């Protein structure tokens, strides 16, 4: 993703320090571009971005009520379609979790069912943050809010998150996905992909809120990543009802690592009784991992069998896979000037020579052959399924 030089969501707004929603909005607009009209529900975003007479919006933007942003966006889409301008201008409806899953669900259902060519973005910070941190349908199990307070009689919210992805899929939306501010490349790709598709689209973005979640403002991105890496918030992508992409997890992190930095879960760590609730949350993560196949299968290079005499083609291939490359050696296979194009990922070295995905050793100006791309592709939401088509020629030496 290129460096954002021109922001369509201007600075000077009054969002809290570390606000995940403000970051998500900036990323969405960067991906969508300037030729877009936005309908925005009442909520935190509307309040901190449009204090009269100021506005942070560098695109056409309409503030609607809490409950009707999808209906307003549907009207905008209809007007553009009738006047022949819909192909050139995109429409985005957006709201928080309360304005999406609760108060505004009726108008969202109508937008999806009627088939309007609108991208609906839910900025999921898991409570009504603007009005006092009340629980919403997307507040997670056991979270303490002002209307689901933890205490002697309660462990916090007794219900789990409403399955908005499943509800959007039930409406037949051609594109449904989840994203996170902790994985900006994946978010960028999904916004662009959604806007290429005709019809109603639903994108739910996980946005930590330091105020409501009661975590340090410097931890927003780290906590967002832990939600994904633990399996509590899977990064998914559906096309025409089929799961086409799921962010894989090599070694799922314990949910305790995600819960502990957040004050809304502090009561779970106050005594031994809270361990049962933490175990219940761990089961939620495990069910997500199993349901969506999130666990990445570790691949190991094939062992070379003992041979005598002539070496077979299969044995040579196995020996090739056992070759160990240092970082310096790998750098020589950069795909330039006729050289082979190799790259490392998850400890294995792949030969991508001649692939249209890596012409001259370059993948869309972001990933270069001759390098270890494990970290660079960590938030791309893909990797295994793309590289599986290429032969493994060795493994990368571990730093000592």
Biggest sheet strand order reads 2-1-3-4-8-7-9-10
Bulk shape = globular
What sequence of helices (H) and strands (E) makes up the elements? HEHEHEHHEEEHEHEHHEEHHHEHEEEEHE
- The total number of structural domains is 2
The biggest beta sheet is recorded as: 8 strands, mixed
Rg from C-alpha positions?
Answer: 24 Å
Q: Give the number of DSSP strands.
A: 16
CATH T-level topology of the largest domain: Rossmann fold
Mean pLDDT: 89
CATH architecture of the largest domain: 3-Layer(aba) Sandwich
Description:
The chain is an alpha/beta fold and 400 residues long. It folds into two domains: 20-292, Thiamin diphosphate (ThDP)-binding fold, Pyr/PP domains (Rossmann fold); 313-396, Flavocytochrome B2, Chain A, domain 1, CATH 3.10.120.10. Helices cover 31% and strands 16% of the residues. It is built from 14 helices and 16 strands. The strands form four sheets. It has an eight-stranded mixed β-sheet with strand order 2-1-3-4-8-7-9-10, sandwiched between helices. It has a four-stranded mixed β-sheet with strand order 11-16-13-12. The radius of gyration is 24 Å and the shape is globular. The two termini are 32 Å apart. The relative contact order is 0.09. The model is unreliable at 300-307 (pLDDT under 50).
Keywords:
single chain, 400 residues, alpha/beta, Rossmann fold, Flavocytochrome B2, Chain A, domain 1, 2 domains, 8-stranded mixed beta sheet, 4-stranded mixed beta sheet, 14 helices
Walk me through the topology.
Blueprint: H1 20-32, E1 36-40, H2 44-49, E2 61-63, H3 69-82, E3 90-96, H4 97-102, H5 105-114, E4 119-124, E5 150-151, E6 154-155, H6 164-170, E7 175-180, H7 184-196, E8 201-206, H8 210-213, H9 220-229, E9 236-239, E10 242-246, H10 255-259, H11 274-292, H12 313-321, E11 324-325, H13 327-331, E12 342-345, E13 348-351, E14 362-363, E15 367-368, H14 384-387, E16 392-396
Parallel strand pairs: 1-2, 1-3, 3-4, 4-8, 7-8, 11-16
Antiparallel strand pairs: 5-6, 7-9, 9-10, 12-13, 13-16, 14-15
């Amino acid at each position: 993703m290129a460096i954002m030089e021109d922001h369509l969501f201007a600075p000077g707004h009054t969002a809290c320090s570390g606000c995940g929603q403000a970051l998500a909005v900036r990323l969405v607009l960067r991906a969508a571009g300037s030729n877009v009209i936005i309908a925005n529900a009442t909520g935190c975003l509307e309040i901190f971005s449009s204090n009269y007479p100021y506005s942070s919006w560098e695109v056409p933007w309409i503030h609607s009520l809490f409950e009707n942003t999808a209906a307003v966006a549907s009207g905008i889409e209809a007007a553009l379609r009738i006047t022949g301008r819909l192909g050139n201008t995109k429409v985005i409806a957006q709201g928080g979790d309360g304005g999406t899953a609760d108060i505004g669900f009726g108008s969202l259902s109508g937008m999806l069912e009627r088939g309007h060519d609108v991208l609906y973005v839910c900025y999921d910070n898991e409570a009504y943050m603007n009005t006092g941190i009340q629980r919403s349908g997307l507040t997670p199990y056991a979270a303490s809010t002002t209307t689901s307070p933890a205490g002697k009689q309660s462990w916090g919210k007794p219900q789990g998150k409403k399955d908005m992805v499943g509800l959007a899929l039930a409406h037949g939306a051609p594109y449904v996905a989840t994203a996170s501010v902790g994985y900006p490349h994946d978010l960028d790709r999904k916004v662009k992909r959604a806007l290429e598709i005709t019809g109603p689209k639903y994108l739910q973005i996980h946005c930590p809120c330091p105020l409501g979640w009661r975590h340090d403002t410097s931890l927003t991105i780290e906590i967002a990543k832990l939600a994904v890496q633990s399996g509590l918030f899977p990064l998914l992508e559906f096309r025409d009802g089929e799961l086409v992409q799921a962010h894989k997890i090599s070694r799922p992190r314990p949910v305790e690592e995600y819960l502990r930095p957040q004050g809304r879960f502090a009561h779970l760590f106050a005594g031994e009784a809270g361990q049962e609730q933490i175990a219940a949350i761990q089961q939620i993560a495990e069910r997500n991992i199993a349901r969506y196949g999130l666990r990445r299968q570790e691949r190991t290079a094939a062992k070379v069998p003992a041979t005598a005499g002539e070496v077979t083609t299969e044995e040579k291939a196995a020996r090739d896979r056992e070759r160990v490359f240092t970082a310096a050696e790998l750098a020589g296979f950069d795909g330039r000037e006729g050289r082979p194009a190799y790259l490392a990922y998850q400890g294995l070295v792949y030969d991508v020579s001649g692939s249209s995905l890596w012409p001259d050793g370059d993948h869309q100006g972001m990933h270069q052959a001759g390098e270890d791309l494990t970290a660079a592709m960590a938030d791309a939401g893909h990797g295994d399924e793309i590289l599986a088509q290429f032969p493994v020629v060795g493994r990368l030496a571990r730093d000592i």
